[in-house]
Design brief:
Layout (H helix, E strand, L loop, with lengths): L16 H13 L6 E4 L3 E4 L3 H4 L11
Antiparallel strand pairs: 1-2
């Protein structure tokens, strides 16, 4: 899961889309007090728009 700036939101990968979505929700809550996410690329992003501005990168290799 990558932030709007292309930086991973956490130090791990997730086994399912549901796990990634839960991690994204938790990560987005970190910015609730400030009221927005400050992107180095896009400037201020409203919290309501933040999840849609993040990207899930799927691993296409077999886990071994």
């Amino acid at each position: 899961m990558l932030s709007p700036d292309g930086v991973p939101i956490g130090p791990r990968t997730y086994r399912t889309i549901a796990e990634a979505d839960a991690a994204l929700t938790k990560w987005c809550r970190r910015f609730a007090e400030q009221g927005f996410y400050s992107s180095a690329v896009a400037g201020r992003i409203a919290l309501a728009d933040l999840p849609a501005r993040c990207r899930i990168i799927e691993n296409t290799e077999d886990d071994k």
